[in-house]
Amino acid sequence: MVNKCSVPNCRGNYKNGPKVTVFRFPKGELLRKWLVAIRRNDFKPTSNSRVCELHFTKDDLEYVTEAYDERRGCLISVQLPAPRLRKTAVPSQLDGCPSYLSTTVTYREDPNSRKERLDNEQVAAAIAESLKTCTDYEKKHSFSSFNELLNVLKTADISDFWKMVTENQKYQRKEADTKLSRAVDNAPHFLN
């Protein structure tokens, strides 16, 4: 059974109206605020009474849920299958009623959530920059053959302890150099 909207003049989920998400009436003090907001005299909501999403602002609805993954250090966001209502939301958009009966409410992000969001953004930016730097470094210093190693060595900062001997643009190779060449070809393919 599809629940229909209880707000006067609303056709939400009726046969000739739009198909929308509906929300149960809350309990306690918030229920009183909802009843005043929908402007129905002597209305007693039942367990089947609902108010549709058309009567809430976009700020009242949540379309994404988020959780912080401490292991990876990032914020994970997942699209919700249906909008979720904020705990403090009150219906404020009453179509078919005079505009002065509809009120708009703006919500501020609470300071702790804002601080956490900004911290997560900074951590994510730092991780992305670190990964980019690492990738650039590996591209600059990687090689897969002895000739590529020689090209990398030309641009690398190498201690004066190491000497390269060249003759007419050919590298001299003796027995020890040949063994070194074979060892380099089998070594890990990046220069630290």
Strand content: 15-25%
Helix content: 25-40%
Largest sheet properties: 2 strands, antiparallel
Stretches where pLDDT is under 50 for at least 5 consecutive residues are: 172-179
Tally the helices: 4
**Number of extended strands:** 6
Q: What is the oligomeric state here?
A: single chain
Spatially, the strands of the biggest sheet line up as: 1-2
Quote the distance from N terminus to C terminus: 67 Å
Order of helices and strands: EHEEEHHEEH
Rg calc: 33 Å
Short descriptors:
single chain; 192 residues; two-stranded antiparallel ribbon; 6 strands; 16% strand
What does this structure look like?
With 192 residues, the protein is of the alpha+beta class. It has four helices and six strands; from the N terminus they run E-H-E-E-E-H-H-E-E-H. The protein has helices at 29-38, 111-141, 146-155, 175-185, and strands at 22-24, 50-52, 61-69, 74-85, 166-167, 170-171. A two-stranded antiparallel sheet has the order 1-2. It has a two-stranded antiparallel sheet with strand order 3-4. A hairpin with a 4-residue loop joins strand 3 (61-69) and strand 4. The protein is rod-shaped, with a radius of gyration of 33 Å. The N and C termini lie far apart (67 Å). Mean pLDDT is 78; it is low at 172-179.
